[in-house]
# Entry
Amino acid sequence: MRIGRRTLFSAAHRTASPHVSADENRARFGVCTRTHGHNYVLTTTFGGARHPEFGWLAHPDHLDTLVETVRREFDHCHLNDDLPYFRNQAATTETIVGVLFDRLREEAATLVPDIAVLRAELAELPDFRAATEGEPWRDFIREYTFSAAHRMANPNLSEAENRRLYGKCANPHGHGHSYRVVLTLRAPLDERWGIAADLVETDRAAQAVIEQVAFKRLDADIPFFQTHVATTENLLTYLWNAFAHAFGERLHHIAIWETPNNLFEYGRAPHFQGAEK
# Structure
């Protein structure tokens, strides 16, 4: 069984690796080498067995105390100058979440010894976050948006049959969405730089994929959808294959929010395997 806790803290930092020169840092991290700050959102996932008598994994107050103990250490401080963790490594989102994960595990051993800290995910910006489950890799999570139109219709069916099957989504003139795509790359942490992926290079490659579908009518403008109904499931397949071509084995998961209520996702996790790509 798993449960989660979310908390916020505000902190300043400089993104600069102590293992390279100032010029190299500026070339890679740009203005982020200057002191700046963020409102961070930390999401922690805990796992364990439900208590047979009390019915919970751990007392909620104990979980709250655990998360708050770690939050206070990082809140309203300068990560590079006030904390010892970033003296020998860059204070990137990937390294910060790694330190938070370790600190949560340390405190959990005392406060909630019967449950495990399974995952920590840290959002630095609304469209960028990193996560770890304690392995040498990190999840590098980036969000993109695009606008597109489509019509859901099977060419082997009559107009009436398509209307009956797809409803208003079979409107011959099409309809559209502002799609939100959540891309997750999984890669080992580069200890020299403190990153799992280069943000600029990732954005460049991802935007090249997004441009294939942005401001298009999917069923009319993209050859793939001449032979595949323009459902969001098929859009997910199209984007997975395009991202896989761009990122190779680093591609771990993608999600598409078609609307604020409709989510579609696929990835390398075991529960996705066996699904047709």
